[in-house]
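Cont'd.
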Amino acid sequence: MSALQSTLTINGLESASGFLEASVRTATPLALAALGECISERAGVINIGLEGAIIAGALGATVAAGAAGAGVGFAAGATAGVAVALLFALFTVWMRADQIITGTAITLLSLGLTGTLYRTVYGSVGVALSTPTVGVVPIPGLSSIPLIGHAFFAQPLVTYLLYLMVPLCAWWLVRTQAGLALRAVGEQPEAAIAAGIRPRRIQFAAVLFAGGMAGLAGATLVLAQAGTFVEGMSAGRGFIAIAVVVLGRWKPIGVAAAALLFGGANSVQTLFQAMGWQNVPYQLFLAVPYLLTLLVLAGASGRAAAPAALGKRETGER
Amino acid sequence: MLTASSTPVDQVAIPRSGSRTTAGETLAFVARTTALAGVALVVLVLLLVATGHDPAVALTALVRGAFGSWYAITSATLVRAVPLALAGLAVAIAFRAGILNIGAEGQLLMGAAIAAAVASVVGSLPAPIAIVCILLAGAAAGGAWASIAALLRQRFGVLEVISTIMLNFLAQYLIGWLVRGPLQEPTRINPQSKSLPDALHLPVLLEGTRLHVGVLLAIALAIGAWWWLKETAGGFRLRAVGANAAAAATTGQIRVGRTVVLAFVASGALAGLAGSVEFTGVTYALYDNFSPGYGFTAIAVALLARLNPIGVLATALLFGALEAGANAMQRDAGVPSVVVSVVEATLILSVVAAERWQSRSVARAESGT
């Protein structure tokens, strides 16, 4: 009896640890893209074209990693993301075109271009293509903490980069002159101009940063997870990242937590399978984070969190 | 201020009322449209050359796939144009009112889902009545889904861009659950709904083709929407709110909130109808990936039509032809069909760039520099 009980407990622990690990793995690309989008939105620019930057990053990483290894692949992914963001910034920041319309077009453009280029370079579907991948790097000590250690500290290096960037961005936004200037542009562009800040430069930089992070997210999908490129593999993550930013209330730490929640909802299926609950409708669990995001938006506290000038075309700068 | 859409998409909207179209304006419109098509064609040819395809062979296949035969025109191009036209009208109405509804995809999916649910219970009714019930249920579902975003915007100041993204995902997961649960086909093997009995299919318009009467519905609704926007008080209020919500409010004659909610719900109903028409006219079943992104392509359709309902018919036809042609291009010339997304995106970006350039030169001329 007691032997059976302990077996059950061990299975439960393993399932829970596996579930957490899957959650962190799924959350990593989401959090990377959402952290960039968070900075961009704090500067008043909402980028629906994030999806495009992610898929461009994925293809860039695939091509470069095939030629020069996974490390170069990550750099190329980020660069491809920046390139897509540059086009978005030219339209929205420089020409002051509508952010939503431009973002929609950029996503279409990137999905079309990556699909076309991929098939041209690597032939049509069916040809299995595998790229070099990066393995997990367990952190000695931390990774042996029961339950959470393996999940959080036996991950690829890019996840640890994320662990560093989240507090760094939080600190930068609140504590530095540049962070203050960026928030001013997103809240009160006119006041920012009066204070000698140039909104366009800041928005340009913020959009490019978000593009780089989204590109890195795409590279992570290929080099740390799938090991191959699949057309449309961004699979809506650019839009999910925007939800993550909202649920994280436009704050880096909150964004990281929200990404983990979305990752968890996506991994719930594996947990159910491990526990032998076949009949629980996991699609409804996938929907939970989005429902939560809507509720947060509707809640009074959600109102104060959005940057006041988010999505506006004109900053008053000439 | 959370509603970013207080500055509507005025660079694409042309809510000019009362002015008769002059020959000069018509000429300018033709010139601009030709220039846009030229830019898109150049981009397509460059991309074809860059990816090692013969542009002549590929473009021939494209045109043949879209217009090469009676069957291609009716069963490929027009059948694809119907959901794009209905969803394009949905986007156009919303954008005209200054509502950035990018949730047409979710509203379309909800329309299809509820259509499938209703179809499973109205079998005992006479077929024409049952079909009308299914179509209307789809429209009602799309409207109801949009009303969530409308209420969130009016009550809580939630950006509709963000809320409609959430609602798109929710609709997608809801269908994922429905086709594996309550609406799954009786054998419970495939994740899809029971196929629609033949009696409940939308009637085919032309014998020997797949073209269903939905195309007439789309044309009628486009003309109706155009007339309504142009000639009725409600249409005027909608355009006034879209052009300048603050100014419309200060007149004291227009209830802005009410106008926004009604326009949003009407937009959702059109998208929902697109879903129920596609369900009863083309797919006859509900499944994951029911829509290949019609709701998103509809944004391009509406923008390229400069939010004019009659124009939506033309651009939906263009996009229907592009997508039908792209399939033929992939089959006959080995060109990946996703290439049309690049063409669509180029068209949107060209429209945006042209409009921005125009408004800048107007601003310069007015300030005398």
